[in-house]
Design goal:
The protein is an alpha+beta fold. The protein folds into 3 domains: 71 residues, no CATH class; 224 residues, Sulfite Oxidase, Chain A, domain 2, CATH 3.90.420; 110 residues, Immunoglobulin-like. The protein has 7 helices and 23 strands. The strands form 6 sheets. Strands 6, 7, 9, 10 and 11 form a 5-stranded antiparallel beta sheet that branches. A 5-stranded mixed beta sheet has the order 16-23-22-18-19, with no helix packed on it. The protein has a 4-stranded mixed beta sheet with strand order 5-4-12-8. β1 and β2 form a beta hairpin. α1 runs antiparallel to α3 and α2 packs across α3. The longest helix is centred in the first third of the chain and has 14 residues. The N and C termini lie far apart (69 Å). Bound molecules: the ligand Nc1nc2c(c(=O)[nH]1)N[C@H]1C(S)=C(S)[C@@H](COP(=O)(O)O)O[C@H]1N2 and molybdenum atom (MO). The site of the ligand Nc1nc2c(c(=O)[nH]1)N[C@H]1C(S)=C(S)[C@@H](COP(=O)(O)O)O[C@H]1N2 has 21 residues, from β3.
Length: 434
C-alpha cells in the first residue's frame, strides 16, 4: 500500500518527524500547545500512540487529516481560549457560557469560535496579502503594512453574533451546532475601515454585492472548495463601521478568530465577517459563494410548519440581526440568602440601538425597567443592570427583554425555521431564594 503513497498521503510517522507542527495541523487541524497534550507535538507517532493508550499497528493506513477517534473524544484545549464549550474539532466550534461573557469588552479568551472549515496553517502577518478586485477601477494587492500606512487605523467595540446562536432552543430540534446563548461577543477590534479601502479601489457603479474569500480549507480536504464565502450588499459594505481588522483587544487576532486579518461586519450574521481574509471581490450580482444559497443563512419569508419544505424562491438572505439581551451575572442556578439581587448583562440590536431593557421575576406578568447604558460606539453591545427584590422564599426565574428604537422587543419564543437562525427569545435564569 505504501508504494503508491503520494505527498497527500504521507504517513504520520514521516509527517511528525519532518514537521511536527504542520503534522498536528493536518491531522488535528491545530497545533497541540497545551501542557497536558503538548508532548504530542515533539514526540510524534509514538506519543500519539501513548495518547490513545496503545501502539497503532496500522498507522501507515491512517490517512492525512485523520483524527483518531480516541483523541476526538477527549476535551479540547486551545491556547489563548478559556472556559469555552466545544461542539467539535473538525471544524472547530465553541461557545462561551453566558456568565463568562460579563465583561464589557469580551476578552480574547472568551470570544466564541465558529469555523466552517479548517483554519489555514500559515497565518503570517508579514507575508499576508489582501486582494481587492472584481468591479473596481484600481484592483489592489495589499499587505497588512500597506493597510496600516495607507488608511486611517481605528479601534471599535463591535458585536459579532452567529446567525445560529440560540439554535439549541428550537423545538423540534434543528441540525447544526447546538449554540445556546454564547455564540456572541463584543471585543475591541482594530483595523482600517472597509469603506476607505473600497473607495481607494474605486467601486464601479454596477456593483451590487461584495464577495469575501478566506484562506481556510474545506473539511473534506478538497482543493478549490471554500468552506464559506459570503458577502453583503454594497450599501451595507460602504457603511462607516465595518473593519478590515488586524487587532483584537490591543493585540493581534487569535488564530481561531481569523489571524492575521479578518472582516468585522457587525449587526449582520457573524458569517459576513470573513476570517483569514485574502480577497474582497466586487460583483454585479448577489454573491453565490459557499453558504450564500439554499437554506444557509437564509430564512423563509413566511411562517412555516416545523419540518416543512420551503421553496428556494421563498428563502431570503438574513440581513440585520434581531434585538437580543443576555443575563451575564449572576449565572443561572444561584441560591441566595437575602431578598435582593442585582442582575446585569448586555443588549444589542443588529443595525439599531437598544432603547430599553426590562426584567421580570414573575414569568413575564410584570416588568421592571433596567438601567441601560449607551453603546461605547455604534454596534457595541450595551450594558444593563437591575436590582431585584424577591417577595418571599422560593424558586424564581429572572427573564430579560430588550427593546430596540423602533419598539420591537424580544419574544418569549420564535417561529421555527429550517436551519434554526435568528433565535432572539428572552434569556431566563433560575434563582433560589432561601
Ligand atoms: N474564513 C472564514 N470566515 C468565517 C467563518 C469561516 O468558517 N471561515 N465563519 C463565520 C461565522 S459563521 C461566524 S459566526 C464568525 C465567527 O467569528 P469568530 O469565530 O471569530 O467568533 O466568523 C465568520 N467568518
Ligand atoms: Mo455563524
Amino acid at each position: 500500500m505504501s508504494e503508491h503513497r503520494d505527498e497527500k498521503h504521507a504517513d504520520l510517522l514521516e509527517l511528525y518527524s519532518d514537521d511536527p507542527e504542520r503534522a498536528d495541523r493536518i491531522v488535528l487541524g491545530r497545533v497541540l500547545h497545551t501542557d497536558r497534550r503538548g508532548f504530542l507535538k515533539a514526540a510524534g507517532l509514538a506519543a500519539m500512540a501513548t495518547a490513545v493508550g496503545a501502539v497503532i499497528p496500522f498507522h501507515r493506513n491512517m490517512p492525512a487529516r485523520f483524527l483518531p477517534e480516541a483523541l476526538a473524544a477527549s476535551p479540547v484545549e486551545i491556547e489563548g481560549k478559556d472556559g469555552l464549550t466545544y461542539f467539535g474539532e473538525r471544524p472547530l466550534n465553541a461557545e462561551t457560557p453566558a456568565h463568562l461573557l460579563d465583561d464589557e469588552v469580551t476578552p480574547m479568551a472568551r470570544h466564541f469560535i465558529r469555523n466552517n472549515g479548517i483554519a489555514p496553517s500559515e497565518m503570517d502577518h508579514r507575508t499576508w496579502r489582501l486582494r481587492i478586485d472584481g468591479l473596481v477601477h484600481r484592483p489592489m494587492d495589499l499587505s497588512i503594512e500597506d493597510l496600516r500606512n495607507r488608511f486611517e487605523v481605528v479601534t471599535r467595540r463591535l458585536t459579532i453574533e452567529c446567525g445560529g446562536n440560540g439554535r439549541a432552543f428550537f423545538d423540534p430540534p434543528v441540525s447544526g451546532n447546538q449554540w445556546s446563548l454564547g455564540a456572541v461577543g463584543c471585543s475591541e477590534w482594530t483595523g482600517v475601515r472597509l469603506v476607505d479601502v473600497l473607495k481607494a479601489a474605486g467601486v464601479k457603479n454596477n456593483v451590487v454585492y461584495t464577495a469575501h474569500v478566506g484562506a481556510d480549507t474545506h473539511v473534506s480536504g478538497a482543493k478549490g472548495t471554500l468552506p464559506l464565502s459570503r458577502g453583503v450588499p454594497i450599501e451595507k459594505a460602504m457603511g462607516p463601521d465595518h473593519l478590515i481588522a488586524f487587532g483584537m483587544n490591543g493585540g493581534p487576532l487569535h488564530p481561531m478568530n481569523g489571524a492575521p486579518l479578518r472582516l468585522v461586519i457587525p449587526g449582520w450574521p457573524g458569517s459576513c465577517s470573513q476570517k483569514w481574509l485574502t480577497r474582497i471581490w466586487l460583483r454585479d450580482v448577489v454573491h453565490d459563494g459557499a453558504k450564500m444559497t439554499g437554506s444557509s443563512y437564509r430564512v423563509p419569508e413566511y411562517p412555516v410548519e416545523p419540518g416543512e419544505k420551503v421553496p428556494d424562491s421563498a428563502m431570503s438572505i438574513i440581513h440585520g440581526m434581531p434585538v437580543k439581551s443576555l443575563i451575564t451575572t449572576p449565572r443561572t442556578g444561584l441560591s441566595i440568602n437575602g431578598r435582593s439581587l442585582t442582575v446585569a448583562g448586555h443588549a444589542w440590536a443588529g443595525d439599531d440601538e437598544v432603547a430599553r431593557v426590562d426584567v421580570s421575576i414573575d414569568f413575564g406578568a410584570s416588568w421592571q425597567q433596567a438601567a441601560l447604558g449607551r453603546p461605547a460606539n455604534r454596534y457595541a453591545w450595551q450594558r444593563w443592570s437591575a436590582k431585584l427584590e424577591f417577595p418571599q422564599r422560593g424558586y424564581y426565574e429572572v427573564w430579560a427583554r430588550a427593546t430596540e428604537e423602533k419598539g420591537i422587543s424580544q419574544p418569549f419564543a420564535v417561529a421555527w425555521n429550517p436551519r434554526g437562525y435568528l433565535n432572539n427569545s428572552m434569556h431566563r435564569i433560575s434563582v433560589r431564594v432561601s
